[in-house]
Amino acid sequence: MAKGLPKRSEDFSAWYNELVGKADLAEHSGVKGCMVVKPYGYAIWENMKAILDQKFKETGHQNAYFPIFVPKSLFEAEEKNAEGFAKECAIVTHYRLKNDPDKKGKLMVDPDAKLQEELIVRPTSEAIIWSTYKKWIQSYRDLPLLINQWANVVRWEMRTRLFLRTTEFLWQEGHTAHATKSEALEETEKMMHVYADFAEDYMAMPVIKGLKSESERFAGAEDTYCIEALMQDGKALQAGTSHFLGQNFAKAFDVKFADSEGKQKYVWASSWGVSTRLIGGLIMTHSDDLGLVLPPKLAPIHVAIVPIYKGDEQLAKISEVANKLKADMQAKGIIVKYDDDDKRKPGWKFAEYEMKGVPVRIAIGPRDLENGTVEVARRDTLEKESLQQVDLAIKVEHLLEQIQINLLDRAKAYREEFTNVAATWNEFTELLDGKGGFVQAHWDGTEETEQKIKEETKATIRCIPFDQKEETGSCIYSGKPSKGMALFAKAY
Amino acid sequence: MAKGLPKRSEDFSAWYNELVGKADLAEHSGVKGCMVVKPYGYAIWENMKAILDQKFKETGHQNAYFPIFVPKSLFEAEEKNAEGFAKECAIVTHYRLKNDPDKKGKLMVDPDAKLQEELIVRPTSEAIIWSTYKKWIQSYRDLPLLINQWANVVRWEMRTRLFLRTTEFLWQEGHTAHATKSEALEETEKMMHVYADFAEDYMAMPVIKGLKSESERFAGAEDTYCIEALMQDGKALQAGTSHFLGQNFAKAFDVKFADSEGKQKYVWASSWGVSTRLIGGLIMTHSDDLGLVLPPKLAPIHVAIVPIYKGDEQLAKISEVANKLKADMQAKGIIVKYDDDDKRKPGWKFAEYEMKGVPVRIAIGPRDLENGTVEVARRDTLEKESLQQVDLAIKVEHLLEQIQINLLDRAKAYREEFTNVAATWNEFTELLDGKGGFVQAHWDGTEETEQKIKEETKATIRCIPFDQKEETGSCIYSGKPSKGMALFAKAY
After folding, report:
1. Is the pLDDT at B355 greater than 60, yes or no?
2. Could you say which of 3.30.1330.30, 3.40.50.800, 3.40.50.300, 3.40.50.880 is the CATH number of the domain covering A301-402?
3. Closest in A42, A90, A128 to B65, CB measured
4. pTM of this prediction?
5. Which residue of A has its CA nearest to B95?
6. E strands of B347-404, at which residues?
7. What pLDDT is stored for residue B1 in this prediction?
8. Bridge partner residues of B208 (DSSP)
9. Which CATH architecture has domain A12-91+124-286?
10. The pLDDT of residue B377
């Protein structure tokens, strides 16, 4: 390994950027704002996808695929949605290049190949999907329609950050249609819970479930439910959203159904999504100054075995043991890499697997051969211990479970420490300027106050949490009556 | 079900189009040339993806993800590749919309948001990937680099057909880098075999492996290997290609590596891909006038159980048996749908599952309850038989295996019947105008002759098959000496 990472405590942002590169997760491409997701980073995304996809199917959804392009006339049909994305979209205007007569070997856009109607590269697919649902939905028998799409989307971002905010990103978007408002609301809520369970059970990332304030709502939604996580620098990350769309898209695209009595009614809708941004959240929740720390349930490699040897003969003996242990672990579904690459020294390998967040590292040296032991190191606590080779697979299986639990516990403890109540404006600003984190505070419910707070502190309302006791009070900013607390934080 | 399909023998093209719609596989979207892949069609694609992905990983490849946009300067770097795709690409020129001052509620492209450099929506990713590989490859230790990407691509097609030729389609593209020419050639060949095995073992679609003639080569390749299948209308379908790219992209993007002696050398490359076009091939290989016929290994549903009953009491009794049989089959990994929807009649359901190509349909009526039997119908042969309920899961498992084998055998027999040798020009044109299919014939190896044959017969060289005996002769068109036979056909 080259030299280490910047310390989180000194420059969290530089630490993040360098970690993403050194752990081989992603890099900037030659296309402004677009990233290359490298194989190790993509393997984490594949693991996330597989689990989420199963959860979507278990909750009755089917996958489908809709076009990447949205004709301008469809794009602008739902006005608020269009307004929300119009300023940051990639627009296809031509369909052909031709040889540039002035520059040999170069190409230019062929002005004769101008599209009659411009195409927007989808920033989200409500418009294209609801223009399709119009054909699919006639009767109450066609409902509910529960569809998910795995896709790439493009939002023209001026300031980008790998995984957290990129011009193109990968995501899934669910788009459902229902006969009644209550069914659509139930779906919206259900998917928020699916996301929250995934975040906690697999990413070991605790989240707060809540409702967005009006100004933070998805463009075109009646309500946005979200899950919010807290990063190690005290900033919040919106990790997933689930939108109750009311009848907005049904009206914009004239999607009606005949109810059981033959009456024509507009359809109710939800949409919900999570993206490669989750990888950013995963990194910033668990990782340390030595590199990535991955929860076992999402790690592409669970265990790395490193032989410590001099000469081929010793290596051969160690390899025999290592391959036996590897086979035992693999039989239990543990993903093991035995790294007998002779071109690298053990110290280099140790640092490499630390940087890549492999949950368990096993070292086997000559003394281990004599004693029937191995050295087992946990990535989360950095603890090492010598274990007997007997029943090692069972012990490692148990250890991986412990690591998964420990990461969640640690993240929960951190979040608890960094979630505070502010009773006054002074407390509020001191918390935000000082330790950071989530700050619960009374808010008068107006956009005006929300905006002022944002201007003065850079903190936004992350959500109005569902899970809090009902309590009235006075707004910390305006002093006006408040019906409940909102959760504030500076955010990504 | 509504009325049936056109007959294949009368209008193959209309039969295909209607089948794709009625079997709920895909439909045209509101975006010219782009398709919506519906849930049932997408489920087939997911099955294909899962199997191919596993095969790619077993052969040492990793997945990654690269940007959808290619800046024009990168796009044009490999001249032949650029020339091949320049005439059919979608071009992003602007990154913002604004309110149209002349039309309330409408948007227009913001002329102030013109990109300095246009972006091409990837028609294929060699350019963007090789510009990245330049950063990833320094030494022979970085080689081979074996990467695959699952992605959407866009080629601006004027005449489109669902699955077979659409403006946007889904595919995978492998892009590998090697230290030596022989390694790159070996990879190119290996992936052709992976595709061929997939086509035969899973799609039950036999293919001919061979080399493309120069004029049919991928733009930027030194050689294109392909697999060619024969459809039921006697036309050929290129089902997958694997390209030996030589050092063309390495030179265009200046990708060199230091060999073990420290000498700088250009890297050798391959690329290979299959797409949603495979679904078109699957349809046209097996399906019949009643609808889709699917090989069990790719079918989203293996078995549909339809109860035949009068009244709730009878339904309850049948459901008890059906659910028991369903559970037994599921325990063997068989995917079963028990369709007790009371809104549809059994006849409608029979036609529906026939249209959707479900390999096995089981009907259970009151007499079956008395006799401990069920009626089992095979989709491939349309045969029905009455079977005892005892050990039904084992019998159905066996039947699914038989169906898989029968579909391949049938397709092979068809292809054999429709593969003929033409010794003379007369024979050649008679075969192509008459029964169609593959025609093997001597060819003088010149592009000129190939072009003339195409003009006069509409047949193209599908490939020069690898698996044929070496034999010299005279070109059927020019009479000039020929070193071997080429495989001709009219093609999709």
Report:
1. yes
2. 3.40.50.800
3. A42
4. 0.97
5. A90
6. 360-364, 373-378, 384-388
7. 45
8. B228
9. 2-Layer Sandwich (3.30)
10. 98
